[in-house]
Amino acid sequence: MKLIASIFTALITMTPLQGVAGSSSTDEIAKYRQLLADGNPAELWEMRGEELWKKKLGPQSVSLEQCDLGKGSGVVKGAYVELPRYFKDVNKVMDLEQRLIHCRITLQKLTPEQAVAVPFGSTSNPSDIEALVAYITAASRGMKIAVSTTHPKEQAAYELGKRFFFYRAGAHDFACATCHSKDKQRIRLQELPNLLNRTDAQNTYSTWPAYRVSQGEVRSMQHRLSDCMRQQRFPEPRYASDTITALIMFMAKNAEGGIYDAPALKR
Amino acid sequence: MKIILSVIAISLLVTGCATAAMQTDTGKMLVARLEEDFSSKGPATMERMLNQDEVQKLCSAYPLEMSDEQMETLQASQLKTVKYPADGNYLGEWKEGEKIAQNGRGMQSSDQVKGTNGGNCYACHQLAKEEISFGNIGPSLYRYGKLKGDGEAVVKYTWAKIYNSQAFTTCSNMPRFGHSEILTEKQIKDVMALLFDKNSPVNQ
Q: N or C of chain B: less Cβ packing under 10 Å?
């Protein structure tokens, strides 16, 4: 395990991901991925996540193995491609991270504060949530993205997410749609997915969470969207909020049918 | 027959109303959710997120459903917000303008309150030829001054466009740099010089 980590670290140090004239950052990532021979540091997060899933925690020493991610108690395989979804026990739509927090509170009896502690990790302060997310999402690799909007609350979440996607506000008048509703747009050299275009939406949604080379961490969808909010000049979203879940619902539905392939590797 | 038709008409009317009401409801629900889920941080305030102005409100509709007349009215009202430089000088220092065009900081939750904002022009536009890292959301502005000249009309138009882009293109993606107080008058002058100065790399 340590050996793998140091090999990854060495490779990262050896390969500065600087944009080169005539070569997009996407090409650079492809080269980097090849250099790693199809390996991905995210595997370390997946392994740690599996340990955490099975680890007995909290005052009553309970693991997360009985957590119902939507496909029945303890079913991890294929759970992520059907999230967000309506959960009868809480009578609301939850994304993966909201559901994980719910299980940590109800099963493991952690306090709400403990359950959301360190949502986004750093080298000195790793996140259990990011590791759990890496493990759970990896168990949907190769499966089709298939979220449901048949329950009225799922439909409502989708509509709310869509409305938010086009909501222009803040100092710069930006909406998500400002950068993500046309094909082949770029900010500087960074290519922007058109999230209204099925292929782009599939390619994007199916590759989150991801190991971010620039950050040295696996980042979840909640993290990705929080950072979008920052760049959009919006205030800060509370971690695992319903607004962000609604936006994830909208994105997931647009990506329907895509083959899930994450945790991925990104710049 | 007549009865059937009127039943259909009434049900269509009801459906229409229901759809419109649903949209308004979703809009209200969204604002209520945002209020609950977000909090001000640094220069990114709740106030600016929740209190959409006329442009932001109308441009949040999808698909856009504005008549030509509505668009013209909106553009005219936005043009009225433009403040031209009091001293009549439109052009500052192009070197400063280049720095502003490169700088993507400002008004983010991670930025300082009342810090110096950038214009981040290169995020969306090509400008100086040497800078190859430019976006394509806006048109290329390479050789802007060389191609457009420096007549009063084009200089005033360009000032107004930077100050409030919504005065010319309804629901433009470009921030309203002057109107929204992102850039100061001096900074806009410097960006103007980057576009018009003969010695600016944009015009080489």
A: N
- Measured between CB atoms, does B33 come within 8 Å of chain A? yes
Is B62's Cβ below 8 Å from some Cβ in A? yes
| pLDDT tens-digit series, residues A207-255 | 999 999 999 999 999 999 999 999 999 999 999 999 999 999 999 999 9
Please indicate if any CB of chain B lies within 8 Å of the CB of A186. Answer: yes
**pTM to 2 decimals?**
0.89
User: What whole-number distance in Å separates Cα of residue B88 and Cα of residue B138?
Assistant: 28
* pLDDT at residue A11, as a whole number: 42
For residues B156 and A212, is the Cβ–Cβ distance under 8 A?
no
Give how far Cα A250 sits from Cα of A155, A163, A255, Å: 10, 9, 9
**How would residue B24 be classed by pLDDT, with cut points 50, 70 and 90?**
confident
Candidates B117, B134, B137, B138; CA nearest to B126 is B134
Return all residues near A147 (Cβ < 8 A) that are at least 6 apart. A81, A82, A83, A84, A85, A154, A249, A252, A253, A256
ipTM: 0.90
Spatial CB neighbours of A218, under 8 Å, sequence gap ≥ 6: A41, A42, A45, A130, A131, A133, A134, A209, A210, A211, A212, A263
Strands A190-192 and A185-187: antiparallel
Q: Is A236 helix (H, G, I), strand (E, B) or coil?
A: strand
Contacts of A234 in chain B (CB under 8 A): 38, 44, 49, 109
- Residue A55 DSSP one-character state: S
Answer whether B157's CB lies under 8 Å from B163's CB.
Answer: no
CB of B31 less than 8 A from some CB of A: no
pLDDT score, position A112: 97
Nearest-by-Cβ selection for A230 from B108, B173, B176? B108
**Cα dist from B152 to A214, B83, B157, B194, whole Å:** 46, 16, 8, 17
- Please enumerate in sequence order all residues whose Cβ is within 8 A of that of B24, keeping only pairs 6 or more positions apart, or say none: none
Strand, coil or helix: what is B50?
helix
Query: Which H or E element spans position A185?
Result: strand A185-187
Task: Assign A174 to helix, strand or coil.
Answer: strand
Amino acid at A174: F
How many Å separate Cα A71 from the centre of its chain? 19
C-alpha torsion sign, points B40, B45, B51, B57? negative
Looking only at the bridges linking them, the beta strands covering A210-212 and A264-266 are: parallel
DSSP string, A81-119: GG-SEEETTTTEEE-HHHHHHHHHHHTT---HHHHTS-S
A-chain CB neighbours of B81 within 8 Å are none
Residue ranges of B 67-106 with Cβ closer than 8 A to chain A = none
Of A164, A179, A235, the CB nearest to B44: A235
